[in-house]
Write a structure and sequence with these properties.
It contains ten helices and twelve strands. It is α/β, with parallel strands linked by helices and about 325 residues long. Helix 3 (about 80-90) packs antiparallel against helix 4 (about 95-110) and helix 5 (about 145-160) runs parallel beside helix 6 (about 190-205). The mean pLDDT is about 95.
Amino acid sequence: MKLGPIMMDVSGLTLTEVEATQLLKPSIGGVILFSRNFKSIKQVTKLINSIRQLNPELLISVDHEGGRVQRFKEGFTHLPAMEKLGNFYDRDPELAKNLAFSCGFVLAYELLDIGVDFSFAPVLDVDYGQSSVIGDRAFHSNPEAISLLAGSLIAGMHEAGMKCVGKHFPGHGFVAADSHLDLPIDDRSMTELIRDMAPFKDLVGRGLDAVMPAHVVYSQVDDKPAGFSKKWIKEILQEQFGFSGVVFSDDLSMQGAFFIKDIHDRVRVSLESGCDMVLICNHPEMVAEVIDDNWEVSEKLQLMQGYKHFNCDKITHLNHLDNIRDLL
């Protein structure tokens, strides 16, 4: 069964009748969960099961990076911000690598255990010390350290059976503006941007399953934000870097996406530019506007399913949890 190219959210702890109807539409291929959808492990598991009863193929996802971006808390290991792994890297790179692997495993195990397919992680942005929205979500200011630590985290996620999503291509760390609230402009040259792209390029063919482009305009390369740009997605990421995995848009309701006013055009241009799935969050009226359109579908999306392949034992989870105890 092919999955539709739209990922929507749901409003509360249980599905409404309208949401249950929407999840059966051919255009819907996934659900992203937020803190408002979580009260307890028992409750969120029941919510996930109710989604799967409607359509067992739907992708179920969440932003679960650690630090300040972790939607589910009570009953879950509160993972550290990735900057903490970067701090360990400066003292002991091999130890940091092992800790990153264990963090990736714990992150993936605990989500897969309740039926979530994948998290939108890891952040591959370079920390320039000037982006409040990225900040301690970034592993490091050194692209080589980011590649090593993110690669280890991804390997841990894979060990548990979860795919990864590297974000925000080609790099959101340099601009100060928050693309949730504004459309950031990065006016550096392509030569300067190569440094930011290095972790993405390094991890192509080394475990990078999916990528999320940034809602940032890199004005010396293209006049469109990366998520709406064939140049960034098709020419650079796919053709030059050889990336053949899944491309997710960032949330099309963010201010950075209002580069295109109409939500129909926003979805269309994202898909035409190379995105396989678009996210529309916190605006059900936008979902309603595009849900009945006949959008093209991507066969790649099924590659992101994780819950079907989850077969890890609790002892392994506890061992990795013990390994990162000092980080928590």
